[in-house]
Design goal:
Length: about 290
């Protein structure tokens, strides 16, 4: 019984935690949708930052590339990257680019047969006379079969389809993997629908249990009330029987002295009669003599 109670408590805590996390995620997604500004490829920008999921292995770990000295290491496929966007103000953007160095990871838009979003590492950066920067980028995974791994962006060419979105300042594989699963039907079912169904089922069972417990409590109260009433009736009946017995006993005690008196009075004439009878019989004998 105690073990069952502990398991019930643990399940209650876990289900409430899952429900809370789900609600927090929903609220966060709603706020992100409302407050964010969408990029051309649909990414949301909030307070100057973006969150993107890496979909290729061009930045995956490779034994030919040593990235141990860099702030951002290898980025496995499906990782979530946090991108600090290039400021919109020109002066702030110039200062932002001035702080970019070799080894930094940038997310940018690049045109091949179509414009795509890529996240690669800065291989070289050179300031130009016109104030812009010429940035060479390449992926860490030298054996990747994702196509051309070297890209060149001229930041001074504002009409170019090739431009920098921002700098990667952090990454999270678990979060990116979770987001990737949520974008798939099976992942959505396993991560959202199944937990929600379990939480709803638990709440329904909890409500049914509470209703049943309340019903049992009412029935128990009714039975206790009935038992109390029966006990009260038995007690009153016992008091009544005791009272009748006491009255009968008192009546018997009152009647006993009168019977004894009557018995004594009736006994006296009998003795006198028995004493007189021999005298009556003796008198004829004297006459015969």
């Amino acid at each position: 019984m105690k073990k069952r109670s502990v398991l019930k408590t643990i399940w209650s805590i876990v289900s409430n935690l899952i429900l809370s996390l789900f609600l927090i995620t929903c609220v966060a997604a709603l706020l992100l949708t409302v407050l964010s500004k969408r990029d051309i490829d649909g990414a949301a920008t909030l307070f100057g930052y973006q969150m993107r999921v890496v979909t290729s292995d061009s930045m995956a770990e490779n034994e030919l590339t040593d990235v141990s000295a860099y702030e951002i290491g290898a980025i496995p496929v499906r990782s979530m990257v946090f991108v600090e966007c290039v400021p919109e103000d020109e002066a702030e953007a110039a200062e932002w680019y001035a702080n970019i160095k070799v080894g930094d990871v940038l997310t940018f838009r690049y045109f091949y047969t179509s414009q795509v979003t890529i996240t690669h590492r800065v291989a070289a950066i050179e300031k130009q006379d016109n104030g812009g920067y010429l940035i060479e980028l390449e992926g860490d995974n030298k054996n990747s079969e994702t196509g051309q791994l070297m890209q060149v962006i001229d930041t001074s060419d504002t009409d170019s389809p090739n431009y920098v979105i921002g700098k990667v300042v952090g990454q999270s594989y678990p979060l990116g993997y979770l987001i990737s699963l949520l974008q798939e039907t099976l992942g959505m079912v396993l991560i959202v629908i199944v937990p929600c169904f379990l939480v709803i089922l638990y709440e329904v069972i909890k409500i049914v249990s509470m209703v049943s417990a309340s019903k049992r409590a009412r029935m128990q109260d009714a039975e206790e009330k009935k038992d109390n009433e029966l006990e009260e009736l038995r007690r009153r009946l016992a008091e009544l029987e005791n009272r009748e017995a006491n009255v009968a006993e008192q009546q018997n005690e009152t009647a006993s002295p009168e019977e004894e008196t009557l018995t004594d009075e009736s006994a006296e004439p009998t003795e006198q009669a028995s004493e007189e009878r021999p005298t009556d019989i003796a008198e004829p004998d004297d006459e015969n003599k």
